[in-house]
Write a structure and sequence with these properties.
This protein is an alpha+beta fold. Helices cover 21% and strands 36% of the residues. The model has no long low-confidence stretch (mean pLDDT 91).
Length: 301
């Protein structure tokens, strides 16, 4: 007996979701996948259930652009509770260090430069990093000692927004692989008062910002509007130079063949993407005056 044919449809593009607190990123994507009845969906950058904010969701051919978005700069606004360090570095964990000390706002500001630029950061034990094929948080929940090696990260900016003694609100702009929970943990240790994150909101992922995001409830309540607001596949590539190809060049790129670039408008060497008649054809590299496609998009034009 033949299996029933899937009724899901081809959907290509991006939705910039404002993920609410209380659900996982995977659960949020599943809800949108059902809303669009889409065959394929994924997201660019996991948010913990306790975190809210920008969660870019890709459908269909847009999933091929997810790595470019994930590699982009991210921005967060987070609240630190002083006086307690937890084993998860947030409110889900148990207290492992406590202090009656509370930092002066001036002391917080004075320490922020120590946590900006290219620095070494030890990821939280409760993180998705794999150790011998297993997630660190699974090992930690099973009671195993998890000691992750410090790794280089880049924090472009770290600002104190507000402070009231027991808590402080900060904003961070950072590169891939940065854990805001670890910033709060290390800042608390440096201040001698300990600390953990009690609220976390992501305000930017690559080209996608908070002001352009839509709440999950709003999308689910107005599916017609959600379809109208679907961004094109190229939205995930908007931080790369764009190359305009004619149909002959597009045909070569779609076959994975290099395309010779002519004219003063050819971009400098490095990553780029190519379009023809307003349709994304491929992403790839520009080298020695040629576009070398490495990821081809199957979109009609």
């Amino acid at each position: 007996m033949n299996a029933p044919r899937s009724t899901r449809v081809e959907v290509n593009g991006w939705v910039i979701l404002d993920k609410p607190v209380g659900i996982t990123s995977t659960q949020a994507v599943s809800k949108l996948k059902r809303l669009f009845n889409a065959k394929k969906a994924g997201h660019a950058g996991t948010l913990d259930p306790l975190a809210s904010g920008v969660l870019p969701v890709a459908f269909g051919e847009a999933t091929k652009t997810v790595p470019f978005v994930q590699d982009g700069e991210k921005a967060y606004r987070f609240t630190v509770q002083w006086g307690v360090e937890t084993d998860t570095d947030d409110t889900e964990g148990r207290a492992v260090q406590t202090s009656d000390a509370r930092p002066d706002p001036a002391a917080i500001v004075a320490l922020l430069p120590r946590f900006t630029g290219e620095i070494m950061q030890q990821p939280p034990a409760f993180s998705a990093i794999k150790i011998n094929g297993e997630r660190a948080y699974d090992l930690a929940r099973d009671g195993e000692a998890v000691d992750l090696a410090p790794r280089p990260i880049t924090v472009h900016a770290l600002r104190l927004v507000a402070a009231d003694g027991d808590q402080a609100v900060l904003e961070a702009e950072c590169g891939k692989g940065t854990y805001v929970r670890a910033i709060a943990r290390d800042l608390g240790r440096a201040l001698g008062c300990y600390g953990h994150v009690i609220a976390l909101r992501r305000t930017r992922v690559g080209p996608f910002i908070e002001d352009e995001s839509a709440p999950l409830g709003e999308l689910l309540e107005t599916p017609e509007q959600a379809h109208e607001d679907l961004l094109g596949v190229e939205a995930g590539l908007s931080e790369l130079p764009c190359i305009l190809l004619d149909r002959a060049g597009a045909a070569r790129a779609r076959r994975g063949q290099s395309v010779i670039l002519r004219g003063r408008d050819a971009p400098a060497e490095g990553a780029a993407y190519a379009v023809c008649a307003g349709v994304v054809i491929a992403s790839g590299l520009v080298e020695r005056g040629e576009f070398l496609p490495n990821r081809v998009f199957n979109l009609p034009f």
